[in-house]
Amino acid sequence: MTATSPQQNPPIIRPDKDRFLGEENPFEAMMSRFDYAAQRLSLDPGLYKVLRRPEKQVTVSVPFQRDNGETDVYTGYRVLYNTSRGPAKGGIRFDLNVTLDEVTALAAWMTWKCAVVNIPFGGSKGGVVCDPADLSDRELERVTRRYTSAIIETLGPDSDVPAPDVNTNERVMAWIMDTYSMHKRHTVTAVVTGKPVQMGGSLGRREATGRGCMIVTKQALQRLKLPVQGTRVVVQGFGNVGSVAAQLMAREGMRVMAVSDKSGGIYNEKGLDIDDVLRYVREHRLLAGYPGAQAITNDELLVLDTDVLVPAALENVITSHNAGNVKAKLICEGANGPTTANADRILDEKGVFVIPDILANAGGVTVSYFEWVQDRGGYFWDEDTVNQRLERIMTESFDQVAGMAAKHGVTPRIGAYMLAIERVALVHKLRGMYA
Ligand code: GLU
Predict the structure, then answer these.
(1) Ligand 1 centroid to 110 CA: how many Å?
(2) Is residue 2 over pLDDT 50?
(3) I want to staple 88 with a disulfide (CB 3.0 to 4.6 A). Which of 31, 124, 277, 418 is the partner?
């Protein structure tokens, strides 16, 4: 394992320079909002220096054997951004676009997200640069186990607890839990969340991110004095977050007109039967070819005439190039970092209400927290209890974010950052500096 110490000097942010260039660098996207929120809070300059940097960045090589006997080597990362409030918490993604910069931004977002919903975790993230579609099941298992053993020093229920993210799922979490437990010589369920229910996972975890999106969308609609019944919704992404958000919003009476995945989007102005779309995807894997709807591109989907837009796929889909054409009145960010900082300004000028990612998609990590609590207590809750507790945390957090935004006259996103930074900074002050 090679542990690289965080850069000596954090990157310099120039918000007005290179307005288009660098817009899509996720670390700068995170940092530009952090800087503004810190300035509005008059954050102590010492703490400002501390919170602009990750605590630990680990880069590992992941050699593994292909089914045909050949050896390949992937690169993996795990970044612990801040652990002042508790063990680091954050998913692991397997994707060709993974970079250290992206993983660092995502680890910072996890730090702010856990603080926004006030759960006792810090933030981390991991990733392996790979295309899982290029791996057989056995190869995927070997990559997962080798990556886990390469980062094993950071992992542990009290130090760093992974979860699913882009292209990882319950099965990958089961392999991580098993690899860690074999090293420790006893079963440690609380080392990962998002596991299968049969081995210490929590009821309601799989649906939690999408459920959280539905809960805060309803709350925002109420604030905007828009009805829930018949409200038009468009969802980008039909994975674990987007498909569940679409399904639950439809069950609440909203009209989900369009959804999309990497094969493109499907659109029916009268509304889609989401249960039927899910059945189609289970059979055909992708949305392409779904009958009874018009095929559209992902770019077209983002600018459809709708009330609510839920970007629930990847980063940087709403940028300065298309934000001006977005017609939604409300955006619920199911994905992490779907809107760039430049797009924020344009949406704000247009009066679009954005429920920021660090609040909108925090339902997943909230139920991860419930899972960790249940594993450590060895006592499991029924699904209603999980869902009720999730609803309470999401609604309270929404109100706190909205309250902070109103108090300081800032957007909900900056309000959420301010709430999070204030909570993390307070713990730093209380703990003091170990020297
Ligand atoms: N990957 C999810 C996220 O970005 C869940 C993280 C977790 O549950 O630890 O919020």
Answers:
(1) 7
(2) no
(3) 124
pTM: 0.94
Residues forming the active site = 125
C-alpha span between 353 and 332 (Å, rounded)? 9
Q: 208-360 has which CATH code?
A: 3.40.50.720
Of the candidates 220, 242, 243, the one whose C-alpha atom is nearest the C-alpha of residue 231 is 220
Same fold, 56-187 and 208-360: yes
Average pLDDT, the chain: 94
Domain boundaries, the chain: 56-187, 208-360
Atom of ligand 1 nearest to the CA of 162: 9
pLDDT at 22: 62
Residue of 159, 368, 372 with the most ligand 1 atoms within 8 Å of its CB, for mutation: 368
Residues 6+ apart with CB under 8 A from 376: 157, 190
Give the number of the atom of ligand 1 that is nearest the alpha carbon of residue 362. 10
Centre of ligand 1 from the C-alpha of residue 48, in Å: 25
> What is the torsional sign of CA 14, 323, 332, 294?
negative
What is the topology classification, in CATH, of domain 56-187? Rossmann fold (3.40.50)
Ligand 1, pocket residues at CB < 6 Å: 89-91, 163, 165, 193, 336, 361, 364-365, 368
In angstroms, what is the span from residue 109 Cα to ligand 1's centroid?
A: 10
